[in-house]
Each structure stands twice: as structure tokens, then as C-alpha cells.
Request: fold
Amino acid sequence: MFRPRSREQSYAFVPDVSHPVANRYGQPIETVPEGHALRGKSLNINSDAAIGNNPNRYKQHGFFFTADNCIACHACEAACSEKNDLPPHIAFRSVGYVEGGSWPSYQRLNISMACNHCDDPVCLKGCPTRAYTKFAEYGAVLQDPDICFGCGYCTWVCPYNAPQLDPLAGHVSKCNMCVDRLEVGLKPACAAACLAGALDFGIIETRPENRAQAETRIPGFPTPEITHPNIRFQQTKSLPREMTRPDSMPIRYVRDPRNGDAHVSQAQDAGRARGWGLKKLSTRENPIAVFTLLSQAVAGAFALLFLAPYFGVSLLAAETHPIAHPALLFGLIGAQTFALVLSTLHLGRPHRFYRAFNNLRWSPVSREVAGLAVFYNLLGLYAVIAAAPMLTAWLAPATVATVTGAIGWATAVAGLAAIYLMYRAYCIPARPFWNHWQALSSFFGSVLTLGALTLAALDVALTLVAGRAFAGVSAYLAWPMVAGLVLEGAGLVFHARDMKRQGGESAASDQIQTTDFGYTYYARNALLALSGVLMVVLTFTQAQGLPGLVLWLVVALFTLGASIVGRLLFYALVIPTTMPGAFFWKNRGFEEHARAVGLARMPQVGVVQANH
Reply:
């Protein structure tokens, strides 16, 4: 049990005050009623079985932040880091700011932020390993790094930068509300250390001394509707009409009379030069980019291969290609195996990949992995039956056909369902650039395009190996390719339009894709359009021989290039609705600079070398 210091000051203790029955979101402040089985249990802090004597142990607590008082001394950061023995590149609590106005009336609004121990913790629901728990004690959302396998999905879904992925340790950790201090009635270390009385702590919906407000919004703070966070703000001083961030995020906050004069996020209008941005295309999500493309190609290829006979098409059939057909199936299994192995390289602890199934009830990641596992196993079963007909020789031919057909249908449906579950994992309100149906059109566009491209490439290769001249691509494969390209192109058009309309982080991501990545973005769009046009020309003209083969290779390369570049852009462009950083700390631009000039080699700078 935590031991308070002798002569601990009164301001360090959590006040015992009256509170309303429910918070403003309708949630009861009493976390569990009297007599409930959850009461009276030890938190086993440091393996101590003792139970704290805090009279408000089963009430939702939260932070109170008075922005008018914060002087950006970072005492809260330092106290938190010392209390939790954090390395320089990790901070459970950090102080960022927004600024605006003109000299001599230039103003800064500081914001101190950690985990808000939300009523609806999206990190808990998103975590596939169930490393998070919403405790009855104090309403704390706690995370166990030993259970975490380092996928980082909680860092995607949290709007507040609360979960911290440590690339060196390979796991996530976060603010634990200092429950060991709460057990003996003390405030968290950050609140107790605040010099200016800006940061306080207590039962939620109560007001500490000298507070007139308890708002849920402040300039730079994402919408509370995503998670219902347990933090309340006070900010009474008048602010400039427009506030900007000191970090590299192209976001500004502008007072909106239609929204009660609150500051709302908008894309920064500062002129940005158009470029290629090729160096920035490489992100930590590179393995996931390849994983998604390969999985979509495999699901599409199998569905088209299996469905071909139902459309009267003899495509790489087992009867005419007794070797190529099972080889293709096992090739698809090999590609999917490689994709799955590659996805584990995205984890901080790849050897714990099996924990991805632990949260099927809530986590989109668990459901995606489960969907792919079902598809993978069904595909393996179908391939074994196709490659070894002696396994079913003891059955009647009609029965064999029925069983094989049933497994084939189940595999095709499972593959498409797995891709849909993959899309659901990107429906993240805290990442509005992804939270759009364009992700669905892109994923299923790749299913059609890459699936058809895979089968067509094998069909062309078999033709050339057999010594025959190129005789065109089957219309059965050509039109799915065109449909996939049209589907993806239409999604991109509507996505760009909707991102501009939504404003904020959505518009900022769109602005970056047309400026920093402008040439790459338009080149990808041109490749998509050219691929579609050339595929239509190839289909209608029935170009054969060497000219037709050259045209087909150009289409294949353009399509593959557009798919890869598009998927890399998908991960590189997203701007989360996170808290603003500072000039050096939590600033993507400074991190890139530190890695480029070698500052990242100095641990005290707090920037880890890129590992991709």
C-alpha cells in the first residue's frame, strides 16, 4: 500500500464532497451499488492484499483543468514520469498548447492531458487482447502491459493520446489514475504537483475550490461524444478568433458563432508546396499495408476462381489444369500465410499473436483476425480436397460434388466477410479520414482488381509456357478488374468531396494529400484511370500476340502500382483527432527532423529512431 509522506499537505488529498447522482451523460457516479459483489475487493497493488480506506472508493473520479491558470511549467508531466519511472520517449501526461492573436496581444492556451478514464472507453473495446479494464474502484480505466502484444490499435481509437505505444518495450502503457495514491486518499501525482492550481482531481461533476465552470470542451480538445471523458474544463479568459497548433498538424481552431462561439477545428489554410512526399510514404503500418492488399487479392482470386463455373466459364479448372489448379490454391494459401505472418511483424510482441482472439465481443481487430482465420482454414480444406481426390474417393461422385461445393461456397463467403470485418476495423471516429465508406470501396475494389489480376496473370503465364501466343484476357476477368477500378475511383471522388465538407482533421488530411503528397496522389489517380481505360481497350479490341501482351503487362503494372501507392497513402495521410502537442514534444515534424539530423540518437530528446 502506498505510504503518504509525513506532514503531507492538505491540498494533496482528494476532498470528500457531496455529488449528484448521475453525470451529464446520464451515467451514475456511484460505480456499483451498496452490497454489490464487486465491493470490498483488493486491487492487489504491489501484491498487497490490503483494501484502501477511501470513503469514495466506488465513485467515478476525474480530472479538472483550469486553462486560465496553467503556466506550462510541466510539473505535472515531471511528477507523472517520476511516479511511473517512465523513459524519456513516453509520457502518460503531456502539456501541449494552441496560440493565436497578434503582437502585442498574442495568447497561448496550455492544455495538460492524460487518460480521461472515460465512461465509454474505446481503448477497452478496441483492444483485442483485453488488456484494459474499467474498474469499479474510482472508475479507473487500467491497462496491463503484460497482456498487451503491442498492436497499437488502442492508440488509433483513443482521441486523447492517452495510450502510449513504446516501440522499444513492444507494448502499450498509460495513466493508471495513481490508484495506489487514491487508496490512501491522495490525489494523483500530477494533480498534487501542479504549481498554479490548474490541474485538480476529485469526484466527477463536483467543482474544486475557485472553479466556476465544469465544461466538457476547450479549444484543441476533441469532441467528448466519442468516449464521454471524465475531465472538466474551465477557461474564462477571452481568446483570439483563431488559434493554431505549434506542431506540424495543419489544424486551426476558429470561433464559430453557429456553435455558441466555441472554437471548432478547421484545416489550416497556410500555403503548402505540392510535392511527392515519397519519404513520408513509409510508415509503421507498412506491414499492414501489404497484409491488407495480399488478403484482398487472395479473397478475390478464390471467389472468382470458384464462381467461374457458375457463369459458364472454364477458368483454370481442375479438369483442364490438373497441376495448375491445386498449385494455384496452395499458392493462395502461401500468399495468405505470408500476409498473416507479415501482420504479426506489426506487433511489438509478435510471439503473442494468439491473443488477438481474446476480445471477440467488442474488438473489431479480434473479429477481423477471426474472420481471416476462418477463411484461411476453409481455403486450406478446399485445397487439400482438390489436390488429393483420394481423400473423398470413398464417397459417391454426387456427394463429393456437394461437399466440395459447400466448402467452396463457405470459403468464398468467409473471404468476403473477412474483408468486410477488415474494413470495420477502420471505422474509427478519432480518425475521420478512415471513417468513411471509401475504405470499404477501396478494400472491395482491391478484391475485384487484384483478385482478377492474380488469376489473369497465371492464365497468361500458362499460355506462354505452353508455347501459345497471347490471345487476350478473358472477359470474365477483365470486367471485374474494370469494375474494381471504377469502384475505387468513385470512392476516391466522393471521399475527397466529403473530407472537404466535414472540415477539421478530415479536410486537413485532404489538404495534405493534394499538397505534400500531391504529385504522388495525382499520379496514383492517373494510373487508376489509365488502367481502366487500357483494360477496356484490351477487352474490346481483343489485341493478341506481342502488342496485346505488352498492353496487358502495362495494365498489370499500372494496376499494381496504383494499388500499392494508394494503400501507402491510406496510412500516411490520416490525421487523428488528437490533442495538440508542443514545439518539440508530441510534434511529428520535430520527430522527423530529429531522426534526419541525428538528434534521435540522444535518448534525452525523447524521440525513438524509426524502425520501418
Notes: The mean pLDDT is 92. Residues 25-32+43-233+241-247 form a domain with the Alpha-Beta Plaits fold (CATH 3.30.70.20). The first strand starts at residue 61 and ends at 66.
